[in-house]
């Protein structure tokens, strides 16, 4: 069982962030919501570890709890 | 030609009870001649217990209603002597297809495990199911078993006393009073018995309506389960197509909450919906149309003194996953042997409390599973719909998303983990699936199957271990079922009961759930397990 990593881990953070926003460019709110949901599911499957997922959900819902 | 559900199968006939000076007392009265009530009556009668079934109707149910019967209930029916005609008549299916919007997103195979006598599921109209049960009850009656079916007998009041239950029964000839030591209430989701006793029935109501239609057609659809999310012919809703015997197709269309039920049921409104689904040129005839809403709820307790509730009367689930009639049969499978032992004075009345314990666990599991299916099929918030649609979109391209698609989970029997009836789990290396509390997995034995050999009493299954042929305890005889590697050509018996052990002894309850298991025979240990399994511990 792993533990949620809350330390910086992504290379070139500005590039990554721009890429994330670009994914939503020109889309309606509904289209963006759908993409976000698909992205969450894809990433969660990649993580797979239920303990880490649980911590991530808790951290997302109430930042600072994990 | 008259349809089977138009013919009275157990028409009202006057009985001696109605002319008796004092109320006649029976051992067991079952209220309700649906699948669950009939199964209870057959189970008791074939064990020699006197049983009377009362039903205000006199025919099998109209329309297909409960349509999918799972493997474990079919195994229970084998024990009740009527599994074969059901499987012969039923439609076996393994493949399911899931559609989303205008496209098929994936298909799946149930991939039933080899080496079981019964398939994972059959589709069969409830009226056939009931008819086969009535046939079995009649055959038992003809053989002298103490079973009696009284149609046109409506229970009007119930007085549940400490030592007996008194019922007022209305008939076309007027009312009469009758008594029983025990009453099993199998009178359905709207259970009049439950209402007359003022008992709770709490849970969650789902605000949705489903149109069900039985359609007779010569169609080229394969024998598969097709499920649509948000199809063009039923926008924003779901739909299900299932094949039944006699070219009858079962169609369920979700309609939403704010509808006029009477309007929606009219053929002039139903037929255009079906044509949109089946194609403008489809030639079909409507056999039955109904609209249902559903609840997920259960009684707080299924046993109320001498009145025992079973099936929909005790618990109700959404239809997704076929857990209604299937779980009702598991209720009576759990109850009848216990009631039999109590009536014979071979177990304390408190054994019946384990019916509550075990079947409430089963009901909660079914409610949880069917509620989750319902929440997937009919999302209750914008965000749950967004995620549902994301899962469906991804499932078309990526296998990882497919296990998240939930159009109903396969009905599987409950494992009674932690039940007060369970004994030792002393078989090191024994498979998890046959641990105490689990239903016995079937296994092929050369020219037969294991479950048929276990029968309907306590059994001592030994695999390559010596033990006495019978064990008597508390007046209960456990019969040995002796197996060895020679009886296991496929290796399934070893895989399902030995694991890494070289031999095993299993004490198996009359409902074919494992009570306890050991690596070798120890008389004191087996007797202690029988004591536990009969509620004496």
Automatic annotation (TrEMBL), chain A:
InterPro entries (alphabetical): DUF2783 (IPR021233)
Superkingdom, taxonomy of origin: Bacteria
Q: Protein name, please? A: DUF2783 domain-containing protein
TrEMBL record, chain B:
Q: Which domain of life is it from?
A: Bacteria
Instruction: Give cofactor(s), names only.
Output: FAD
**Would the keyword Flavoprotein be found if you checked this record's keyword annotation?**
yes
Q: Is Flavoprotein one of the keywords UniProt gives this record?
A: yes
Instruction: Please list the residue ranges annotated as the FAD-binding domain.
Output: 27-364
Give the record's keywords alphabetically.
Answer: FAD, Flavoprotein
Q: Which GO terms describe its molecular function?
A: FAD binding; oxidoreductase activity, acting on paired donors, with incorporation or reduction of molecular oxygen, NAD(P)H as one donor, and incorporation of one atom of oxygen
What is the name of this protein? FAD-dependent oxidoreductase
Q: Which organism was this protein described from?
A: Oceaniradius stylonematis
């Amino acid at each position: 069982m792993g533990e949620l990593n809350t330390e910086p881990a992504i290379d070139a953070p500005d590039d990554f962030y721009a890429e994330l926003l670009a994914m939503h460019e020109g889309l309606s709110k509904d289209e963006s919501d759908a993409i976000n949901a698909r992205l969450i599911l894809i990433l969660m499957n990649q993580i797979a570890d239920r303990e880490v997922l649980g911590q991530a959900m808790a951290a997302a819902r109430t930042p600072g709890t994990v | 030609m008259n349809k089977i559900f138009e013919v009275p199968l157990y028409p009202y006939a006057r009985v001696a009870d109605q002319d008796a000076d004092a109320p006649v007392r029976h051992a067991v009265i079952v209220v309700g001649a649906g699948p669950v009530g009939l199964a209870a009556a057959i189970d008791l009668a074939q064990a020699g217990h006197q049983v009377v079934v009362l039903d205000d109707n006199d025919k099998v149910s109209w329309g297909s209603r409960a349509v999918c019967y799972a493997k474990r209930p079919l195994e229970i029916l084998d024990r009740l002597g009527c599994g074969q005609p059901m499987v012969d008549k039923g439609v076996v299916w393994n493949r399911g297809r899931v559609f989303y919007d205008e496209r098929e997103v994936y298909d799946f195979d149930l991939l039933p495990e080899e080496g079981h006598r019964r398939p994972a599921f059959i589709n069969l109209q409830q009226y056939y199911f009931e008819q086969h049960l009535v046939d079995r009850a009649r055959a038992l009656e003809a053989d002298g078993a103490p079973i009696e079916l009284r149609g046109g007998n409506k229970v009007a009041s119930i007085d549940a006393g400490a030592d007996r239950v008194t019922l007022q029964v209305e008939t076309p000839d007027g009312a009469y009073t009758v008594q029983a030591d025990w009453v099993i209430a199998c009178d359905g989701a709207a259970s009049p018995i439950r209402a007359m006793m003022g008992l709770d029935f709490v849970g969650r109501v789902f605000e949705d309506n489903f149109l069900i239609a039985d359609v007779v057609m010569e169609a080229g659809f394969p024998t598969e389960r097709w499920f649509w999310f948000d199809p063009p012919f039923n926008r924003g809703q779901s739909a299900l197509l299932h094949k039944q015997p006699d070219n009858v197709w079962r169609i369920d269309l979700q309609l939403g909450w704010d509808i006029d039920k009477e309007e929606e049921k009219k053929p002039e409104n139903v037929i255009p919906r079906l044509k949109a689904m089946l194609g403008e040129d489809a030639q079909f005839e409507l056999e039955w149309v109904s609209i249902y809403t559903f609840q997920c709820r259960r009684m707080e307790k299924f046993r109320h003194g001498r009145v025992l509730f079973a099936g929909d009367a005790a618990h109700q689930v959404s239809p997704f996953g076929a857990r209604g009639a299937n779980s009702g049969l598991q209720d009576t499978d759990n109850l009848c042997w216990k009631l039999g032992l109590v009536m014979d004075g071979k177990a304390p009345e408190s054994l019946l409390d384990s019916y509550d314990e075990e079947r409430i666990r089963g009901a909660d599991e079914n409610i949880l599973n069917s509620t989750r299916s319902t929440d997937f099929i009919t999302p209750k918030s914008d965000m749950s719909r967004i995620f549902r649609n994301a899962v469906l979109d991804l499932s078309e391209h990526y296998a990882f998303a497919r296990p998240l698609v939930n159009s109903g989970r396969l009905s599987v029997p409950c494992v009674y983990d932690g039940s007060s009836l369970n004994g030792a789990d002393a078989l090191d290396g024994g498979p998890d699936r046959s641990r105490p509390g689990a239903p016995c997995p079937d296994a092929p034995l050369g020219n037969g199957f294991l479950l048929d050999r276990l029968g309907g009493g306590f059994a001592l299954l030994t695999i390559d271990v010596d033990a006495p042929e019978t064990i008597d305890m508390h007046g209960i005889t456990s019969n040995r079922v002796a197996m060895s590697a020679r009886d296991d050509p496929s290796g399934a018996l070893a895989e399902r009961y030995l694991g890494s052990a070289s031999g095993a002894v299993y004490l198996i309850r009359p409902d074919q759930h494992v009570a306890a298991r050991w690596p070798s025979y120890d008389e004191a240990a087996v007797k202690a397990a029988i004591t536990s399994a009969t509620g004496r511990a």
